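ok trying this again, last paste got cut off
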Amino acid sequence: MTKAITRTEFCSAPYELVRELGHRKGWLFVYLWLNHFGQSRATASPSIEELAYMCGMHPDNIRKALNWLCQNGWVERQARPGKTSVYRTLPAPR
């Protein structure tokens, strides 16, 4: 028997991002988890280690994914010295 999916367990990603990251599905997971963490508030601030655990990835690959997502306009990062950075997922870049 399969478990029914409820609305709170559903996630979505912009089609353009899915197409761009088809070869790097783990990086897409990073975006989806950031989006999930930010659902209840405007921003998300999970640690690298927390994202690595949730995505099943090495922390170095999480950092690469975050850098790519920020550089390509999918995620906005606000650095906070001495604390985890705050991230906000953005709509498709123009």
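PB: full thing came through this time. The chain has a mean pLDDT of 82.
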